[in-house]
């Protein structure tokens, strides 16, 4: 059985929160719950005139990769609505090959549901 996941390129995430909002709307989560949550890292200066300031979309335990949408042949809602196109859905082995091509990316694979 092929495992699927998300490849998140946080070098290009703009911090727009669209993934959060789309997920909440798709699943009917209350205001304080998410299937994916945007985390802000920084800002802080770690060398002269060099700053750390990054946004990282982090899927939560509630993320099931939009199983119902995917079952209908669609991509997860966070992928569909990402304005920066920095979230990709696919087989984990294919995403891992892309991960090796450039830094500042992460792979998410949800826990198996029973």
TrEMBL record:
<protein>
    <submittedName>
        <fullName>Oxidoreductase</fullName>
    </submittedName>
</protein>
<keyword id="KW-0408">Iron</keyword>
<dbReference type="Pfam" id="PF12797">
    <property type="entry name" value="Fer4_2"/>
</dbReference>
<keyword id="KW-0411">Iron-sulfur</keyword>
<keyword id="KW-0677">Repeat</keyword>
<keyword id="KW-0249">Electron transport</keyword>
<keyword id="KW-0479">Metal-binding</keyword>
<keyword id="KW-0813">Transport</keyword>
<feature type="domain" description="4Fe-4S ferredoxin-type">
    <location>
        <begin position="4"/>
        <end position="33"/>
    </location>
</feature>
<dbReference type="InterPro" id="IPR017896">
    <property type="entry name" value="4Fe4S_Fe-S-bd"/>
</dbReference>
<dbReference type="InterPro" id="IPR050954">
    <property type="entry name" value="ET_IronSulfur_Cluster-Binding"/>
</dbReference>
<keyword id="KW-0004">4Fe-4S</keyword>
